[in-house]
Amino acid sequence: MTPKRPYLMRALYDWIVDNQLTPHLVVDATIVGTKVPQQFVQDGQIVLNISPTAVVGLQLMDTEVRFNARFGGQPMEVIVPMTAALAIYARENGAGAMFEAEPQLDAMPEPDESNDEPQASFDTVEGSKSGEGTSKSTNKKKPNLKVIK
After folding, report:
1. Phi and psi at residue 123, in whole multiples of 5°?
2. For residue 71, which of 118, 38, 107, 108 has the smallest C-alpha distance?
3. Residues in Cβ contact with 120 at an 8 Å cutoff, skipping those fewer than 6 apart
4. What stretch of H or E contains 107?
């Protein structure tokens, strides 16, 4: 049989979002192939807000969860192999589920990593921080929003 974790995750995600709650994904950051912001990992785990307002391009696939998000203002592509997804729950009330170990997930083929798109790695993003103590940076501009009636 195919693993049930991807199906349960998609169903719980839809259920949480349909009830206007905020879905959070608990991830084991030590699993090979997991690409998450390491500065927020605690005890080998990270909790990610995967609500439609927090992420862009969310893909809940059979082999992995993939999306783009900002962490500390820096954009990053996040990749969570399905084996690294430990739980999904609603932030407001804790409704959701923890996933049990599934040997079928280990037997699934690895996702194709041969896309030709250049992707920013976290190492390059972290290395581009400006020095502390500077109040203005030439690269950063304040947002400028106008109310149009």
Report:
1. -60, -40
2. 38
3. 75, 76, 77
4. helix 103-107
Per the DSSP assignment, residues forming a β-bridge with 27 are 46, 85
- pTM for the model stands at 0.71
User: Which one is predicted more confidently, 49 or 148?
Assistant: 49
Helices (H) and strands (E) in the chain, counts: 3, 7
* pLDDT number for residue 101: 85
Structural element, H or E, at residue 6: helix 5-18
| Radius of gyration of the chain, Cα coordinates, nearest whole angstrom | 18
Average pLDDT, the chain: 81
Q: Three-state SS for 68?
A: strand
What is the tens place of the pLDDT at every residue in 22-64? 999 999 999 999 999 999 999 999 999 999 999 999 999 999 9
Residue 116, helix vs strand vs coil: coil
What pLDDT score does 84 carry? 95
- What is the C-alpha separation between 68 and 123, in angstroms, rounded? 16
Two structure tokens written together for 50? 């995967």
The tokens describing 71, both together, are 């962490």
